[in-house]
C-alpha cells in the first residue's frame, strides 16, 4: 500500500473512531505513521482528503446498479431488487458517518458539491439508474405499464437510507431482514395487473 493509500485508509479509521469534526490532520498523520507535511504533500487541504475517503473508501452503489442492469429479464424483479436493497442499506450504513459530517461542515459540503459538479457525480445517480432498470423491466412486461419507475426507485432507496439512519440510532435487528418485506411491498405496486 502506497503512502497516499495509507493516509486515506488512516483518515477513514480516524473519522470512524473520532467523527469528522474531531478528525484532525495531526490524528490522521499519526494513524498513517507519517508527518503532517507528508500528508499535505498528497492532499493540499483537509477537505481534499475527506473527499478522497468518501470516493475511494466508501462502497459505491454503482457496482450494485451495474449488476442490476445486467439482470433485466433474469431471475425475478423482486430477487433483483432485494439484492440491490441489501447493497444499498450496507452502503448507506457505512457512508453515514462521513456523509453526516459533510452535511454538518459547510466548507466540506461546498467543496464536495464543487467536486460533484466537476465530475458529474452525485447521490442522485443510483436513483436514476435504478429507475432505468425498472423502465427496462417495464418494457418487457415485468413491471406494470402504469407504474412510475423513478418514483419506485426513489421510494426503495429512500427506505434503505432511512433504515441506515434509524439503525445507527437504535437496534432494529439485522438489516438483511428488511429487504424482502420492503421489496415485496414495492413489487405489489409494480407488478403487472
TrEMBL record:
DNA-binding region: 24-43
Keywords carried by this UniProt record: DNA-binding, Transcription, Transcription regulation
Keyword DNA-binding attributed: yes
UniProt superkingdom: Bacteria
GO MF, any single term: DNA-binding transcription factor activity
PROSITE patterns reported in the protein's UniProt record: HTH_TETR_2 (PS50977)
Residue span(s) of domain HTH tetR-type: 1-61
Protein's UniProt name: TetR family transcriptional regulator
Gene name linked to the record: rutR
